[in-house]
Structure formats: structure tokens, C-alpha cells
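User: Predict Sugar diacid utilization regulator's structure from this.
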Amino acid sequence: MSTMSSPVEFLELLAREAAAVEFEGPLVAARAAGLPPDRLAELEQARSVALRVRALLERRRRRETELSGLYDTVSDLAGLRDLDDVLRAIVHRARNLLGADVAYMTLNDDERGDTYMRVTDGSVSARFQRLRLPMGAGLGGLVAQSGAPYVTANYGEDARFHHTGEIDAGVGEEGLVAILGVPLRLGSTSIGVLYAANRSARPFVREEVALLVSLAAHAAVAIDTARLLTETRSALAELSAANTTIRAHSSSVERAAAAHDRMTALVLRGGGVEDVAAAVTEVLGGALLALDAEGRLLARVGEIDEPDRADIVEAVAASRTEGRSVRRSPLWYAAVVAGAENLGALVLRPDDELVDADQRILERAALVTALLLLFRRTVAEAEGRVRGELLDDLIARPLRDTDALRSRARRLGVDLDAPHVLVAVGDDAIAATGSARQRVLSWATTYASARGGLAAARDGRVVLMLPGQDAGGSARAVARDLSRVTGRPVTAGASGPSNGPGALAATFQEADRCLTALGALGRAGQGASTAELGFVGLLLGTVGDRGEKDVTQFLSATVGPVVDYDARRGTALVKTLEAYFGVGGSLARAAEQLHVHVNTVTQRLERVGQLLGADWQRPDRALEVQLALRLHRLRAPAG
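Assistant:
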């Protein structure tokens, strides 16, 4: 018998890792050689042992491959930091190690009490990839609930599992038959299930189960590590953000403290609203407007346009209601208030976003501005009282101690020996409420002080003593400017100039009579002087409250028919009468002045006679007509 028919041949087959079918060759050759039965039995026993050794070596090689793959997997997982990357790597390696058609992973949802599909590898069904499994339902639900591995060679026909329509439909659409599921465990807690599945009825052997269990154990640790790393990163990011916030807050608190100290110093050294505005912009940056209660500009720092009046009113109202600054992009508004009184607003256009502490700076600046405005008002009111008392003493009768009055005036910067005009403002400027009356007096005090004069309230009038000699111009300026402040027409009568304190009382009386005359002439809302009204003004200034009614009746009775005739016919009878009386009753000179023929003047005067009566040229009637014509002209002055 050759050596090839001996047991040694099986060792050679093992040595070259021959296929299992080749181990039948020595037996076939021995039978063909006619070896006796005992030799054949010996060879069969040797073949059987060789095949067992071969199977053992094969299992060890496979195990070595699996362990090597498992080691590579663990190494790969250790290098991953993102949780999604970890999960995809686990599922992909499970599919490769087991040679499965599909691998996938479900994770437990503690809030909903079920398990859901998290990652798949090799899947083609969208429905399968969206599956959610109730605890205890399907193979995966049972693994998730029990924490033990489960394997089936044919899931659809396996009655051990609780089948549901949704799960079976997803598995069927994916075409899965054999499924292996093992738990992902952290200590005693199951966090999900790792699966390997085939689309044919191929059972998973014990070694494959053990391999997937090992992979799941490492995967659970990797998942937890990635989760902890993600949480750590999130915590670090939150800490970094908190640190940034703390730094910003600390910086803003320091800015607020510095701004507080600076504004306190401004108040103590007598700074103004302009200084507060400059301090705010230096601390917060940007540009700022300070406005009074009427929306007029008090201070401007930087390049910033004034908002619309309606926008200011709305924003200030919101700031007062909320008790803090409000944003109307890109501007911030802080109401300047004292109790329930609105004093104005600060409008800030910052370069950067404002944090809470920055808003507090703006609000504190508004408070300081309110204090400064109140202080300025108090000082102005005190000075106004002093000035008012001086003017009241100057226009009183009899005048006492002119030297003392001159001394008081010098302390206020007023030279009583310089020319002054006195302007009396009528009751039409003063509403019934005390606040409106005080407002007019406050305006008059400021107006007069700015021009080196005085103002006071006396006998229901507001009186201004202003340097200068143009009484009429001063009256018109006061009427115009005060009308804008009050929002209603203001009448102002003036007289002067006066020289020396002794003449001021008489000048005031003339200004007061001029004011009365303007009312009698129906010229409310205008300004004029006694010189501009002439003797008629002095006359009407004495007629009292019935003056305007008396003037109207007098005009109607004296020249009313002529005025009405001109208004209806468009004629010039009034103008002709004025020219006729103006040239001393000369028809020729009147015609020359009117640029008409003498006959035209004659015809017009004949028409006047028809309207007024034949005796209109009688001396007493002619005087009344001339006076009426002068009154008529004064009631409607030019310009």
C-alpha cells in the first residue's frame, strides 16, 4: 500500500487546508486498491478525526477573523466622536462581520415607551426605516423589553413573537426572513437593539449570536461615550456662552457704574442736558437727541435725524406705561418724566445692541435729565418771580424809591434808563385753567429775559417790558410767537418807548388802552401800538368792555350804507370820501388824487348824499363821517 493510502495523507490535506470533499479521496483510493476491511475502518476513523480537526481549525480561523473584526470595530468606534457617526459605524460593521443582507438599530424612547428605528445599513424600504415598535411587539420589541437576544430563521412564520400589521408590513416590504436581535445594554439598562437580518431562511448560528452580542456590548459603551461627549461639549458650550454673558454683564455693570458716577458729577457741578447727552453717547456709543415735552430739540449729539412727531408720541407713551426704555428699531426711547408730568424724551441710536444694563444707563440719563429740567424750571420760576415783582413795582402807582428799583434792575441785568416798550397781552392768550395761565407767564418770562427785559402778570394781563423803541414791531412779534405757543390767536397792545423808571407806569396804561382799542376795532389776534392807532386808538381805549359793540353800531349808523353799497356794486365811494376829506373838500384835488375826472367825483358824492342824506356835509355830520371812515380803516389794516 502506498503512503497515499495511509492516515498520513489526511495530515497532508489538513496542512494544505484542503476542502472537505478532498478528504474522501484516500478512502476511495483504498477501496479501489482492495484494502482489507480493518484497514478501511482505520482510514475512515482517521478521516473522521481529520474532518473534526479541520472543522475546529475552521471555527478558530473564523473566530480569529471575528475577533480581529471586533477589535477593528472597537478601534474604529474609539476614534469617533459624533453620535451619528458612531451609530452608522456600528450598524455597518455588524452587517459586514456577519455577512448579513441588512443590519439596523433601534433605540428606546423612554418618553413614548416604545423603540424606534434609528440607523439602517442595506435597507431599501422607506417604510421599514420609519418603523416604531411597541415594547413586546415583534422580535425587536421583545428583545427591547426582555433584554435577551432573540433569533428566528423565518420571522413571518415564527409564532413566538407578537405580530402587528405595521411591523409585518415593514418587514415584508424590506423582504427580511431570518432576523437576529441582541440588546444594547448599559449595566442593567437596555437602551436599544442591534439587528442582523437576511432575505433568505438562513439560521444564525451560536457563534454569530455571540459575535453580535459582543459587538452590541462595545457599541453600547461607544454610544454612551459619544452621548457623554456630546453632553460634555454642549455643557462646555453653555459654560462658554455663560462666561461670555457674565463678561458682557460685568462690562455693562462697570459701564453703568461709570455712567452713574459721571452723571452724578454733572448734576453736582451744574451741568446741563447737553452734558448728559454727551455722557450717554460716550458710554454707549451712537447718537442721541434730547427733546422737550413739545418735541422741540434740547440737545443733539452725533448724526441722528429727528423722528416723526407721531412716532415720538407713541414711543414716549409706551415708555411711560412700561416704566422703562422701549425700542422702535433702530432707535431707543426713554421718557423724561417727573411723577405724572411728561417733560420730554431721550432718543438714542446706538452703534451696538443694548443689554439690560445699557438700557438702565439710558433710563438713568432720562431721570437725570428730568431732574435738570425741573431744577432749570425752578430756577427760572424763581428768577421770573423776582423779575415779575420788579416789573409790578415799576408800573405801580405811586412809584417809590427809584434808586432802589434801579439797583434791583441792575442785579438782573436790566438798565431802566434805556428805552423800553411795554407790551400788554390780552385775556385771549390765557385759558381758564391755572396751568395754561402759568404756561403763558412762563413763556413771557423766558421771552423777556432772553432779550434783557422783564415780564409780570397784572390785572388779568401779561405784561412784557422789552428793550427797544419799536413798540408796534414788538407787539406783533409777541402776538405771533405766543400764538404759536398757545395754539390760539393772541392780541398784544404796546406803547413806548419810555425813558426812565418814572415813565413806565404811564406807558403801561397806554399799552393797556391800546389792547382795549384793538378789541373794540375787532382786531383780535393782532399786535399794534398806540402810535399806530393814533387819537382814535386813545379814544377807543377808554370805552371799556362795550367798545367793540359801540364801534360797530356807530359805523353802521354813520357810513354803513356807503360801505354796503361798495360791497354790493364794487364801487369806490368810501375811497372817494377819504380822498375828498383828505384834501379839504376840493373836488379838483380829489379827482387828481383818484386819477379820475372831476365829474366822476361829483357823481360819486351825489350818490353818497343819496345814501347818507343831504346833510352829510354839515360840519357836525362831516366830523362823524370822517371819524367813521378812520375807524373803518383801522378795523381792517393793511398787512
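Residues 566 and 572 are 6 Å apart (CA to CA).
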